[in-house]
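Provenance

Sequences were taken from public entries as deposited. Structures were produced by running a predictor on each sequence independently, with no templates supplied. The record for Fructose-1,6-bisphosphatase class 1 from Hymenobacter aranciens is shown for reference.
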Amino acid sequence: MLHPSPAVTKLSSAPKPRPVAQPATEDRLALPVGTTLERYIMRKQTEFPYATGELSQLLRDIALAGKIVNREVNRAGLSRITGAMGEQNVQGEAQQRLDVEANIRFIRALTNGGECCAILSEEDEDIVQTGNHQGKYVVAIDPLDGSSNIDVNISIGTIFAIYRRVSRTGGPARAEDFLQGGRAQVAAGYILYGSSTMLVYTTGHGVTGFTYEHSLGEFFLSHPDIKIPAQGNIFSCNEGNWLDYPEYVRGFLTTCKERRLTGRYVGSLVADYHRNLFTGGIYLYPATTAKPAGKLRLLYECYPLAMLIEQAGGVAVTGRTAVLDVPPTKNLHQRVPFFVGSAELVHELQAAAE
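Predicted structure for Fructose-1,6-bisphosphatase class 1:
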């Protein structure tokens, strides 16, 4: 009679893994789906006794365009809309195909929504009139920040600021509608197109984040009250420009390295900002020898991100001055130095600038 070897006996006597219990169908159906952006906006609208729905509609229009751009970003390699156009935009930067695509999508959505009377875009030299002359709001927007990174599958984003117009309704918007200053923003935010797509915004009452659920085609509330840590362990900048940075910036970065802080730089403003918002840190884009006024645009990049970071408990400055207190000039594409992030780190940088 043959007897099994000890190894075989041990193997055959080993307990079989238990199958992972799956919730019954009726239990899974009972689980809440979550709060959609649409439902959240409607609920918050009731908290303002004089709200009439225009701002809520604007946020929905921006979310709609964000969904469409998200679709184009996800299939960009297949639809052959990556790469440069071979032209420059009004900023003197190489214009990407997706820049043009995103610009068209946001302009169409905001025009069709009916509440926005004019748009200031990074991609257009002049104000874009939507024809909605009765509209009470204007939108300043960078339709696709960091679009050159799409070819290598790196996160990119959209940045927007919303103002209540000050010019007379019934006619076209004017430059003064966009030159009210950062404190006049009624809403601001960004959309991140990454491993998951998120819409993060503020209306001056805290910062809220929504994550896009592709199968349902909806943004769902995922981060109800975002706060940036007061201190952080990350500094984000293009150290290739080190020799062109002001002395106080180099001194601050040297201190960061001596304290063994971590350097992280994606090269997409929204991606770097988003990471630091959640983990704590500081993003730096100083003035350089080549760009003595700075590189980032005040009205549709720095103002909205500064409003959002302040609502999250952080700080944004151009050096000594708070970004939201920088007066706009007549240049709609005005540039400024930009430092944004955790309060303690930014205050350290301010002290170094004095």
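The domain at 37-223 is CATH 3.30.540.10 (Fructose-1,6-Bisphosphatase; Chain A, domain 1).
The CA atoms of residues 146 and 268 lie 4 Å apart.
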